[in-house]
Design a protein that fits this description.
With 371 residues, the chain is mostly helical. It folds into three domains: 2-67, no CATH class; 79-158 and 207-278, no CATH class; 280-371. Helices cover 71% and strands 0% of the residues. It contains 15 helices and no strands. The chain has helices spanning 2-13, 18-43, 49-59, 62-67, 82-110, 115-145, 152-155, 171-188, 208-226, 243-277, 281-304, 309-312, 317-323, 326-331, 333-362. The protein is elongated and about 100 Å long.
Length: 371
């Protein structure tokens, strides 16, 4: 029995910090010996080895017993942080789904993979992405749970930021509710004293802080896909049978592999800063201007300087429309896809920059109520 007790105490001691180990082990040993005395007195005879081991099981496994004396959190994420972990996982999984759908479309459009093969690869990539997202969000939760000072978004949240939590689970219900309210309001329009329809939801949409949080999660998922953590980026299926175009796409991917990844890291760091600081209007607007400029430079390089410029460069609006028509998608889907990405990307960045310049000059963000 003495050997079993010493082995048990040694297993507990191995999990304890050195400065507390001796005191805790001595206290635990006294408690166990007291239990033995009480049990033996009740039984009227000494405990056998099996009975003693059963009593140690009642005390608890050494890992569990040692954890009772720990000063820090007793879980990966605690009950206060768990809802944030759950919400972040939902947003991350939406990002994984978007990247997976994009990958399936690229494979099918390339022509070398049928729908069944593309879906099977998509399921595999989605599994990789889900595991990665789970590890990423859980790791972030583990770190936050152990910070001495919790981030401001946990302790000093504002009502105007709560619109984020109506997405993504309830937006469909809100839309349905709005539709029902419009119908009901129409039916009651001639009835005196009828109450107006209740507006679905209480917020105008994502606040800057909420949008930054969602952007950071989704950008991280996309970055991991770009760097291959969610499965290999299969360029062979993008260019179909055109070997020349495939070589050009590979060259651009290799050139942009690290620069584009670093740009995404800057985007993530900027979004995290916005969440931590509460997204001050002018600071956020200045960052948006810089990010849009970087995006425009990148897109302009691809369209005019990169090896791909020789197949996607256009001289007029008519050329742009020609690249995006049905015949172009059928004959050279990779050229049509890249041209579409460039056009949409340029327009998006210009619109974002214009809005950021307005916010920077006025010091107001009209996307959400002030205060």
């Amino acid at each position: 029995m003495d050997k079993k007790l010493e082995a048990y105490l040694a297993a507990v001691a191995a999990q304890l910090p050195p400065e507390k180990r001796d005191d805790i082990v001595a206290e635990l040993k006294d408690d166990i010996l007291t239990r033995v005395e009480v049990r033996e007195e009740a039984l009227g005879h000494a405990l056998g080895e099996d009975a003693f081991e059963e009593m140690l099981r009642e005390v608890g496994h050494p890992l569990v017993v040692a954890a009772r004396y720990a000063d820090g959190p007793q879980g990966i994420v605690g009950p206060e942080l768990y809802p944030w972990w759950q919400f972040s996982m939902r947003v991350a999984l939406l990002g994984v789904a978007a990247v997976t759908v994009l990958g399936v479309l690229i494979k099918v459009m390339g022509g070398d993979a049928d729908l069944a093969d593309a879906l099977s690869r998509g399921i595999r990539d989605a599994a990789y992405g889900t595991v990665f997202a789970l590890g990423l969000v859980t790791g972030a939760g583990w770190v936050i749970e152990r910070l001495d000072r919790k981030p401001a978004f946990l302790t000093h949240w504002r009502v105007r930021d709560l619109g984020m939590f109506e997405f993504p689970s309830s937006f469909a219900a809100r839309d349905r509710a709005r539709g029902r309210d419009r119908v009901a309001a129409g039916l009651r329009s001639g009835v005196r004293g009828a109450r107006p329809g209740v507006r679905g939801g209480t917020h105008d949409g994502f606040s800057p802080v909420a949008g930054a949080a969602a952007s950071a999660i989704c950008t991280t998922v996309f970055l991991m896909w770009w760097w291959g953590a969610m499965g290999r980026v299969d360029l062979d299926l993008l260019a179909g049978e055109d070997g020349d175009n495939l070589q050009l796409i590979r060259q651009v991917y290799q050139v942009l592999y690290w620069p584009f990844g670093l740009l995404m890291l800057v985007r993530i760091a900027f979004d995290v800063m916005r969440v931590v600081t509460g997204s001050p209007v002018r600071l956020t607007a200045a960052g948006d201007v810089v990010m849009s400029l970087l995006g425009l430079v990148l897109l302009a390089w691809i369209a005019m300087v990169s090896p791909l410029a020789q197949i996607i460069q256009v001289q007029s609006v008519a050329d742009v429309l020609g690249r995006l028509d049905t015949e172009s998608w059928r004959e050279t889907p990779e050229v049509a896809l890249l041209s579409g990405i460039i056009v949409v990307g340029l327009l998006t960045e210009v619109i974002h920059m214009a809005g950021a310049i307005v916010r920077l000059s006025s010091g107001r963000d009209r996307r959400q109520p002030q205060g």
